[in-house]
Amino acid sequence: MNRRTPPPLQPIGPRSYDEKTPNASRMYDYYLGGALNFAADRELAERAKTVLPVTPALARLSRSWLRRVVNACLDEGIDQFLDLGSGIPTVGNVHEIVQQRNPDGRVVYVDYDSTAVSHAQKILRGNANAAILHADIRDPESVLDAPEVQTLLDFSRPMGMLMVGILLYVADDYDPAGLVATYRDRCAPGSLLPMSIITLDEVQQHDPATYEQVLGLVSVYDDASEQLHVRGRAEFAAYFDGLTMLDPGIVVLPDWRPDGTTEADAHGPARWLGIGGMGRIG
Q: Region Disordered: start and end of each range (predicted)?
């Protein structure tokens, strides 16, 4: 396959309302059966599904993994969360998972898409322990020092710093490892950092046909406002340097503390595409 020429890098900062340019979080919403997407998002998402038919299954596996890691954090006594690149709120939101088990649990979502932010604001209206920040995670100071974050979260206590799938959209030019380190270094000892990405390592070994389809998917996202940056297991593992990994370490998403709720997806081709792990700080 010929090497593609990627589109120019997008500037850092919150995005204004734009229904004509396909957006990754709205496409993700569409894969999950949501209604907060526009015609441009649906059109490109359908192209993506033509190239990689298991794209919706991968989205469901990622959403299921998010639920499991949040519950794992709660099991470890974590009661406050910063969800970086949260996307459009959908079924099983982090604050719903948290506050069902701990009504005093606190959650701050961060996303730069105005559609995600405006919808989250409606959902969170009247919830004193949850908020959404309209910011770009590639500018960590604008996130970490924001009043919404400083008011709700106590950085002197352990928290769950969620980076579920978001590094997929961070180009190497923005130093994803450095971003992870910046966020990590602001967290108190005992904090937990769940991270996940899409990788080609496992699928290339187990399912060559799907491997070729993923390469096609990367090209499809050249027409979206966010591009895909698929990374190897070794590079991903380095993001956890200095952290203590929780069992079972870095594995494909359906093998991370499975609970049987995504049985069909867990055994299909999508199982090899996403990997994740959770590290403890300090």
A: 1-21
Residues contacting 106, CB < 8 A, separation 6+: 79, 80, 81, 98, 129, 130, 152, 153
Model pTM score? 0.93
Q: Which residue has the tokens 């991370």?
A: 256
CB 26 within 8 A of CB 88: yes
Q: Tens of pLDDT along 118-154?
A: 989 999 999 999 999 999 999 999 999 999 999 999 9
Other Cβ atoms closer than 10 A to 111? 26
Please say whether the dihedral angle defined by the alpha carbons of residues 51, 57, 60 and 62, taken in this order, is positive or negative. negative
CB under 8 Å to 74, separation ≥6 — which residues?
97, 98, 101, 102, 105
Tell me: the pLDDT tens digits for 38-83? 999 999 999 999 999 999 999 999 999 999 999 999 999 999 999 9
Q: How far apart are CA 187 and CA 41, in angstroms?
A: 35
Q: Which residues of 179-206 are buried (b: 16+ CB within 10 A; e: fewer)?
A: bbeebbebbeeebbbbbbbbbbbbbeee
